[in-house]
Amino acid sequence: MSNFIFPETFLWGGAIAANQAEGAWNEDGKGLTVADCVRRKPDVDVKDYQALHAVSSADVEAARHSTDTALYPKRHGNDFYHRYVEDLDLMAEMGFKVLRVSIQWARIFPNGVEEQPNEKGLLFYENLFREMHRRGIEPLVTLHHYEMPLHLTDLCNGWCGREVIDHFLRFSETVFRRYRGLVRYWLTFNEIDSAFRHPFSTMGVLLDRIPPGQQERMLWQALHHQFVASALATRQMREIIPGAQMGCMVTRRLTYPETCAPEDCLLALAENRDNLVYSDVQVFGAYPAHLRRSWERSGNGPEMARGDEEIISRHCVDFVSFSYYMSMVVSRNAAAREKVGGNLTTGVKNPHLPTSEWGWQVDPTGLTIALLDLADRYRKPLFIVENGLGMRDTPDGAGRIDDDARIAYFRAHIRAIGAAIEGGAEVMGYTPWGCIDIVSLSTGQMSKRYGFIYVDCDDEGQGTFRRIRKKSFAWYRKVIATNGRDLD
Prior knowledge:
Blueprint: E1 11-15, H1 18-21, H2 49-52, H3 57-64, H4 80-94, E2 98-102, H5 105-108, H6 119-134, E3 138-144, H7 150-156, H8 163-178, E4 185-189, H9 199-203, H10 215-240, E5 245-251, E6 255-257, H11 262-284, H12 289-298, H13 308-314, E7 319-323, E8 328-330, E9 339-342, E10 345-348, H14 364-378, E11 382-386, H15 404-422, E12 427-430, E13 453-455, E14 467-469, H16 471-481
Parallel strand pairs: 1-2, 1-12, 2-3, 3-4, 4-5, 5-7, 6-8, 7-11, 11-12
Antiparallel strand pairs: 9-10, 13-14
């Protein structure tokens, strides 16, 4: 039994992204997205994130003329588009109070620039949200989760073009008005800090279309456009849906110094400050001084239109949501140290932590540290909207999947959340990532599984897509039913 007391209002649930789950990539008027053009690379080391996520103009052209769903796995996902009612039944059986999903912009505006929305796309999400409410599940909806219409890459290299702000606001206003009685928790941009890790997926930006020496500046330009769009969408939401809440969403890349040497500590401080820039802007409404100084030295700062900074300052978020998968280590002697990776980042290996098959180091105590640090820094409600362990799950002869390692992982992380709440952090809820097996963002695999629910589909998209409850399914159901008191 747990000694921690979670608030009665705590939102237990799970999280998926439309581009990794829905499939139906060319149905009911949906347009082509950046996600539909990211190829699985079985010949590349699953820990080589830079190679896995490198996308060129030639790659996009090849994808545009292909109808392959095995090579482009997000085109099939786990078939949530056709099976969401069945999936919601299973989530309701677990007792979910919330489900984080996203809306594919290209289902509503296929090319991102149309004046009128696609009714079939609007109706799909309306039906999804209504079915969630029938089961007592609150929608937590991300507006922009690596699902940008590909046409906007063609038009202006994604978010590099300022005109994308107006196109995005047409989309956000449309969905706010359509779903104002159905959705009260929103997020603008998923892991907005990932712009430098995988700019094509995050912002529709192809680096080979930027002149040499201008890449960093243009990525900051694209990010500035997203910050302005996020603030303006937050204003829209407040005008259209009184009482609704908007959150930012960032990757919490907690970094430790390798030693107590002041040089190592300074390196860790710099990494953590850089990681927190993106939530600082959306919570405090201003770019931090250290970032501005960096722009002055490098000349890589974005151009800002008159009024941009006022817009960002006036429309800050209501809560801070984040993903947490692992911690990282930095060292002044990094060149001589063994490296590990995770969630498209790399660092020095921490000898005190276990490492998954994909190189992700498991650190539940780091989640307590991250929550307390964010609580002290922002003094706003926090929401853990991604956390989980990718594993290879295989049903036995009787069809059982005994994923005890996953149960141990979640038990430790839920205890870590409880410790942070005891320490004064206000935590709204917890939505483990890929609560049902979906296509992995980092590797494009189905075999890297996160869910409490197994989906019979392999890396090539072959299988029955049948849903099977894993052992962790019953365990998580008990956790929710006892509000986190019974973790055994």
